[in-house]
Structure prediction request, 209 residues.
Amino acid sequence: MDKILLHMCCGPCSCYPVKKLREEGIEPVGYFFNPNIHPYQEWERRLQTAGEFAQKVNMEFHADENYGLRDFMKKALPAEALPNGRCEMCYTWRLEETARFAAEHGFEAFTSTLFYSIYQQHGLMRRTAEHFAQKYGVKFYYEDFRPGWQEGIDISLELGLYRQPYCGCVFSEEERYTKSVSNREKKRRMKEKLQMAEAAEQKLLAARL
Ligand code: SF4
Prediction:
């Protein structure tokens, strides 16, 4: 495989995965599809930053330029009632669209910069991507990019990219700025949640073996 469709959640999160894939001899083609980013000016800024990054590193870039607030809300509000439902919906939507785009445009495989994030639910996203790979008849290229977390931050700073302060949706923006819980406490809770999700994932894998 020499070319891969890389779903880009944003510019900064793309820095390390692009470097790593190129070191492996794989050329990524960027694809921005993120109806989860709000409000409009923030979405536009992240879209522009993703394009700016692609230009700076000389990478082919495609973007879905529809701002998806209303569609996102239609899906997010019912999902909000389920434990973890909103983020699961969000991963599902973006990874399915990436798999579909990859298949329709003749890519052999796809992956996502979501697998670089230390804040997302890695195991759940991996299972979701594998499911859609099978559905659309395209390969999912799995790589855990999280070990390059700091390196990615350093590259994004060197390139002078805009770095966003919250995940994307209006809910995450509220969580980020709510005064009732300190940021330190929010980070601690997030870490705890991720550790629990990873432990559950490991347990599930061990039970299957
Ligand atoms: S918190 Fe992030 S992953 Fe979860 S729904 Fe919002 S944008 Fe998507």
In short: The chain is about 55% helix and 10% strand. Strands lie at 3-7, 27-32, 61-63, 109-112, 139-140. The mean pLDDT is 91. The two ends are 29 Å apart (CA to CA).
